[in-house]
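Dear colleagues,

As part of the handover before I leave the project, I'm documenting each prediction I ran so the next person doesn't have to rerun anything. This entry is a single chain, and its sequence is reproduced below.
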Amino acid sequence: MAMEVSREECLAFFREHGGTPEVYFSDHFERFRKTFHEFDGDWKGGRRVLDIGAHWLHQALIWSRGGYAITAVEFPALFLEENVRRAASAANIRLLGCADLGSATDLSALPDDSADVVLFTEILEHITFNPIAFWKQIYRILAPGGRIIVTTPNYYSWRGRAWRPLRFLAGRGGGLPVEDVIGVGNYAHHWKEYSLGEVKRYFGLLSPDFVVAKAKRVPTYQRSRVGWKRAVQTVMDVMPLTRPNMHVEIALPQKRQGIVAVASY
């Protein structure tokens, strides 16, 4: 089991190397930490990690401190920022800019079978392009015996469908409120949120070589400090169907048939 890394230690590291968006890091730290331990506690395989959508290397740092060798993928412009480059150098994280995940041509720089673990956390819900070309690259890069880790919001979360019936009945729709679309920074809107069954189906359609190794709905990552909200979270998290988050691990035991999905558009 890897040594625990605290929020304060991580923030001190980023401050030492030029700073980072600390509010975002603090809001997501528990997700980063719990995702790592959910996987690392059972994993006996290789330590080469490809972190898709690495942003400011927040999650990458935790995995690096946990003994994994990280290649971080993000838009090239972000990796030109001095603080990101300094943090990457200090943590021995390789940076790979990818201008377009839809075509994923920049991922061609990575050799076949060069990753044991692919982190695809809080990305699935943002994809607006046909993903087949991207997954062909990931399939090529992922070594046999490797895994893809997917975290994504649960469509049936109590914070969504189950928690807003009055909004639904009032004809005010679903998904993000228009107030948030107009006025709240959220690092890209959720184009589609999935059920657990849909995530399994998604990878089954991509390739019969993909095998669901773990699939679970997980409780709230970080409890509210507001008493009544914390109480609601505690009660609703008891019911698996309406837990707000999902953790899915997709294994690739052997490479036989490849990505078989074909786009009709």
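The beta strands are 48-52, 69-74, 94-97, 115-121, 142-153, 211-218, 245-252. Residues 116 and 243 are 29 Å apart (CA to CA).

All the best with the project,
I.
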